[in-house]
Amino acid sequence: MPDEQPGGQVTVRYWAGARAAAGVDTDLLGQCDTVADALAAAVALRPGLAPVAEVSTLLVGGRRAAREDRLEPGALLEVLPPFAGG
Questions:
Q1: Dist. CA 27–CA 68, nearest whole Å
Q2: pLDDT of res. 84
Q3: Can you tell me the distance from the alpha carbon of 43 to that of 23, in angstroms, rounded to the nearest whole number?
């Protein structure tokens, strides 16, 4: 997959309010076993992300993911906060 990163690292991509809370578009993390592990590592790196991460939808490989889902080396985790408007 073109969005995957080599070397067992996990890429976390932030969208909208999550990007604003993190202060960056993406983070490259070491290998994480689960979505929850990756999210915890991202919050440890970017503490302002914590409240947004709690309510965000998470995608892995473009599909909705549960926090307990396993991550493969090179996975792309996307953090999508709730969107306002209609």
A1: 20
A2: 56
A3: 12
pLDDT value of residue 28: 96
Q: Read off the tokens for 42.
A: 């991202």
Instruction: Classify residue 68 as exposed, middle or buried by CB count within 10 Å of its CB (0-12, 13-18, 19+).
Output: exposed
- pTM for the whole structure: 0.86
Q: How many CA atoms lie within 13 A of 36 on its CB side?
A: 4
Give per-residue burial for 3-41: e unless 16+ CB within 10 Å, then b.
eeeeeebbbbbbbebbbebbeeebbebebbeebebbbbb
10 touches 58 (CB < 8 A): no
